[in-house]
Description:
Helix content: under 10%
Radius of gyration: 26 Å
Largest sheet: 6 strands, mixed, barrel
Strand content: over 45%
Structural class: mainly beta
Shape: elongated
Number of helices: 1
Strand order of the largest sheet: 16-17-24-23-22-21
Amino acid sequence: MKIKWFFTLAFVLLITIVPVVSAANPLKVxxxxxxxxxxxxxxxxxxxxPFVSIDAISSELKLxxxxxxxxxxxxxxxxxxxxxxxxxxxxxxxxxxxATKREGDLEKFRLEIDGETRWFPYWRNSDAPAFGPRLFxxxxxxxxxxxxxxxxxxxxxxxxxITEAHVLQKTNTNIGEVYEEKLIDNPVAIINKNVKTxxxxxxxxxxxIGKNKTKDTFFEYLKHEKIDxxxxxxxxxxxxxxxxxxxxxxxxxxxxxxxxxxxxxxxxEYLKNSPDFIMESSFQ
Length: 284
């Protein structure tokens, strides 16, 4: 059901108003240079500030304005813009992830979790169904509360898959307990600091991590063409290797811990075979 709704003109950036001269000369409204008229007048002055009916100018701005009486909400959408849709859910966390599809990507993410709404305008994910967002709910920092882990695929192609992780955990603030995103140390930076490699004859390589040395067939994991975040054995992990297809042998598994208010490497190890990650379904 449509409803006339008044917003400050600061919200509607495309509107220009000519100041009031007298009661006989009411405020004039222009949208994209064209005058808009209404009876009764579509502008009201409240406490010295001009307010305009968004419903009256919705057609000029190509907006749909709807009032949801049952939920007591107003929905405003641009007719020419793609609309947000559900891209992942996880029932046990009461979490639903929304995004807008645009030119092969998912963007403008919105997360509704346990009655709370968060917006993430800078998140990006491929819109290919095989690389959709993954949601996990696990106590990965052993604080007795489950964190929500969102895994996004930021890049993929022949032999390439790059993911990124976002961890949201309940945090006490001055407005109560809210979900707050925590920093995660970059897996490539962790490897550059802690892993050394040395080429050996016969396509062999020596991998040194701390005091541990491992020899294996040569693989070019330093290209970082596969970075796969996941939740594995109750921990946040990242597996970094070379080509995805054809698969290279071996890779570095980073297990994270929550320390100093961020997730950083707890354990770094070389694996000769990829770990068997459980791929949490997008719709649980």
